[in-house]
Structures are given as C-alpha cells and as structure tokens.
Amino acid sequence: MINMIENLGPNVKRLREKHDMTQEQLAQAIEVQPNTISKIERNKRSPSFDTLNRLARFFNVTPVDLLGSPDEQEIQSIPAILDRVDEYLPKLKEVHQLTHQLEDFSPRQIDYLVDQINEIAKFFAPYIEMDEDGIPLNLDHNGRVIESPSHYRQLPVKEIDRIYQEIEAIKTFNQDKFNPE
C-alpha cells in the first residue's frame, strides 16, 4: 500500500498537467483547499477516500491511473489494445490488398486519392466549433475547449438507412413491374 501512495502524488501531478490546470484550479474543481493538492502531489499528505473519489471522477480515471505505477498503468491497457488488434486485423488485410492495387496507379492518381481520403477523415474526426472570429464556442466550466463529436455522429444514420431501404424496395418493385420474366 505504501508504494501505491508514493505513486499517487506524481500521478495526480501528471493528470493535472495533462489537463493544463494549476493546483488552484484543480482544488477548486474538486472542492478542496488549494494547499491540499500541493501536499498530495508532494506526498506530504494522504487524501481522504472522498478526495480520491473526487480526483478519479474529475479526471475520469480508474484507481490504477491514480495509484498505480507506470508499469501497472501500461499493463492495465493491454487487454484493450489486444481487443483493438483483433478488431482491426481483417481491416488491415483489406488495406494490404489495396496497397497492391495501388501499385498500378500513377503518382497523380495517388495524390488525388490521398486528398480525398483526408477530406473523408475530417468528416469522422472530432472538431472544435468556432465563431466567425475563430474563437471556440464550447468551453467547459474550467474554460477548456470542448471538442464536438464528428460530423458523422450528428447524421441521422438510422433515418438515412430507412430511406435507402425504401428506395431499394421501390427500385425492386419497378424492376419487377417493368422487366417481367
């Protein structure tokens, strides 16, 4: 348990700095005295369970992220990484096949494809909404910029799929009607 407490201070400091916060801002956010954060980060004070809970909730992290060593934190992420590898393996095989097909493309065709892929990728990436002066519109209670989900997530995908199914049904009906066997 002593090693876990020794890890707490550096981990809190790392998380705070990762969020570009001062000790005072963090103290205000989790409703503790400003010197409490300083003492926790320097391992001069052990936080209460309530303060630990507030820190974990504020940073949206697990106990291992707060109390674990860097090695323990790495080990914790391994199952998620392995799941992603299994999920992406079939997709990687498709990419490998595409690279062989691209060998027949001219450099100009490849440049065009790269530009098109970059435009598509922007559609799926989170973005920061800005006003006409380039100032971010969405800020959290600490003044940090909040990213909006991708444009794709805002699409009514189920509605689009329903309409697509209706169009396909109409096309099938028309083909059957005008192309009797």
UniProtKB/TrEMBL annotation:
<feature type="domain" description="HTH cro/C1-type">
    <location>
        <begin position="12"/>
        <end position="66"/>
    </location>
</feature>
<protein>
    <recommendedName>
        <fullName>HTH cro/C1-type domain-containing protein</fullName>
    </recommendedName>
</protein>
<dbReference type="InterPro" id="IPR001387">
    <property type="entry name" value="Cro/C1-type_HTH"/>
</dbReference>
<dbReference type="Pfam" id="PF01381">
    <property type="entry name" value="HTH_3"/>
</dbReference>
<keyword id="KW-0238">DNA-binding</keyword>
<dbReference type="InterPro" id="IPR010982">
    <property type="entry name" value="Lambda_DNA-bd_dom_sf"/>
</dbReference>
<dbReference type="GO" id="GO:0003677">
    <property type="term" value="F:DNA binding"/>
</dbReference>
